[in-house]
Structures are given as structure tokens and as C-alpha cells.
Fold this protein.
Amino acid sequence: MLVKWEGIVIRSVDYGESSKVVTLFTREHGKVGIMARGAKKPKSRLGAVSQLFTHGYYLCKAGPGSGMPDLSQGEIVESFRDLRQNLAATAYAAYIAELLDRLTDEREANPFLFHMLLLLFRYLDEGRDAEILCRIFETKMLRVAGIAPHLSGCANCGAEREPYAISVSQGGLLCPACLPQDPYAIAVSPSVWKLLRLFQVFDLERLGEIEVNPSTRSQLKHVLRSFLDQHLDLRLKSRAFLDQIENIGL
């Protein structure tokens, strides 16, 4: 049986001497794995469409059982060439793809995530602020993982009383009265928690220019990574390289 999916390549692993196992995040079925036989051969018609980050339509032959479908042919919609040629953009895209891969299950349709991933890659290809795009994505993926911080008042008592700190263990903002509940709460400027609250509900299609100073950027990264590390401990391979890129300011 032939099936046609619209998808984005989020992982590509060599298989044998000439083939690849490709993971797509599809509009129709979420994350699916397919076999691209012969894709590593120089003249393979499957080579380009199976490259990481490619957005396209994939015609696959699915067997009667639960085995991996074979990729028969593909049509590239967007190759994101400028993204690929920019080292920093590539690092962010790889991190975004791996985080999405690790936080989603096979064959769980999520058109919202597909659309968000597509927009992120388009913005990275256009040269938008990759660091802020990544922070927006991390914020939204915390919600996907069920660990979104509580940012509409104190997570402990519910009071709306500033100045707030952010507690990873308590799951969000802490007011001054509740601050003793977590001696490791992260002191942040008001702009940090307000941006995080905005990122949680922000529609990426409305993205304009976001001016964020270096101190706020650093605090945003620290807070989001602290939530990811304490609650999920994913150990992403792409993260070390991304951190190097951010540290040298590329």
C-alpha cells in the first residue's frame, strides 16, 4: 500500500553501505520512521529528499505488518539551503529537531507541532534571531512535556506579589514570602518571567523583531535549561555543540 505524507526530516541515520533510516515529523501522523534504500548512493533520487531538515512530500510503501515503510519517492518543498550554510542556524535547527524527537512518541499526530517546526526552520532560514527562536521553542516544549512553569502568580501560594524568583522544584514563580521554600530558586529580572509567560502563549506566525538584552538572554537560557535538566535529563547530543556556538557568539 502506498501512502503519501507531508513531513520534515528530523533525524537521518546511515544504514548499511548505501541506505538511510529517516525520521520524519509528519503533518498527518506525527513522528514516523522510514527506510530510504540506496539514498547514500551518489546518483540516488532519494538522496536530497532524505537530508536533515528537508520539508517535502514522501511517498512510501507500507507493508501489511508493522515494519518500517520504504521510501519510494519524494518531492522537496523547502530545502532550507541558507539554514544549512549557516553554522549557527544549523546548530540551533539540530537542537530543535533532537529535542522534538526526544519529547514526542511515534505515530502521535500533532499538527500544531508540525506547523511550529516548519515556521521555526523558515525563520532560521531567513536569518531571524536563532537564540530567541530556540528559547520560544524550549518554552513550548516544556508544556508538551507537562512541566510548563507556573507564571501567573506564586506557584506556592497563588499570590501576585513581586519581586518573583523562579523555582524549578516548586514549578514556577515564588513570591518573597514563599522564597524560603526553595533556597535554590533562581533570581531573575521581571522581564525574564514576563517573556517566558509571553512565550508560552505566543503565536509564532506573529513574530516580529524581539529586542532582548544579553543579561535577559542569559537568564532565559538558565531557567529553561534548569527545567529541562532537572525534570527530563535528556542528554541531547546536539546541545554541547550548540552551547559552544552560543559561547563564542556565532
User: Anything to note?
Assistant: Residues 214-231 form the longest helix (18 residues). The helical segments are 81-85, 87-102, 111-126, 130-144, 190-201, 214-231, 237-248. The radius of gyration is 20 Å.
